[in-house]
Fold:
Amino acid sequence: MKQIKITLANRYRLERYLASGSYGEVFEAIDLKTNQHVAVKVAPIKRSNTLQVEKEFYDRLQPRRGAGMLKVHFFSQECDDYRILVLPLLGPSLKDLFYYCEERFTLRTVLLIADQVLARLKFLHSRDIIHRDLKPANFILGRGYDGNTIYLVDLGCALKKVHAPGDPMHYGRNREDRVYGTIGYASKAAHMLQCQTYRDDLESFGYIMMEFLNKRLPWEDIESTGSQSKEELIGQMKEQIPLDDLCKIESDGSENSENSENSDDPIKPDDSDVFKKYFEYIRKLRYNQRPDYTWLQNLFRLKFRDKKYKYNHVYDWTERKFEEFKSALPEGAEGTDDAGGADGADGADTA
Structure:
């Protein structure tokens, strides 16, 4: 990656470029005061106030922030012509790990992910914050001993839900000026420019789960026509697609691999039912109704138990990393004590 040596705010020495987005750029840096590695978001002041908005939402989650929620280390609007937001440095995103696992997660891994993500959304929504841009890149694993914790990040598109007496929408407006979020994962209401609420974040996460299971979403190949935009056509498909088609799991045989935790229990036709029930529940929610997150978690936990999966925090990427480690060992070394075993794959550092 690109190596750089710039110090911001006389404290954060940028070490390497990590990513970029509409808000600006992200760098790995060293805090010269603590010698810790951190993530620094940098955005031109003239471009937008996204970093300031994100910082304010992170502050709303304090104190007693839940697991998988970040704490701001530092924020400044007076760093030359830039805003900078300093956050803890995390590990790979679920998007990174999805590609690492050849763009498909097993049912077992998706159920484990769902349990954590629903806990994050429950906490975020308890503070009346709607994320509005859920996507695989915005779920990032921790590092080291925190390597199995999924963090929910990037609150630059979030919205504070205002409870206004007499306003049935609980907002000062009931229409948006554009579709907020990433089009592929945006809710049906977002496509209709309706103000988003709790159920919209849950719907977006439902689409993410189906992509993880099937490599792709049904509307991935849609292109604009002369009369309609891609955005409009995707919104129409989300309205029209039957849940049986949306929630169908296409098995590619990965659940039957010789070394997989799931080798004795392949995908069955009724495994799709749990996701269909998830979407049915969301679609029945009234606009301002708070979801029963515990019920949703138990829905997936029951499927996990029915499949007789082991609850040992071994995800697909953990197994894959462990198999790569074993294949790299000298011939005959695999059976030694030092090589470890299935338990060795459970270390947080393998994320």
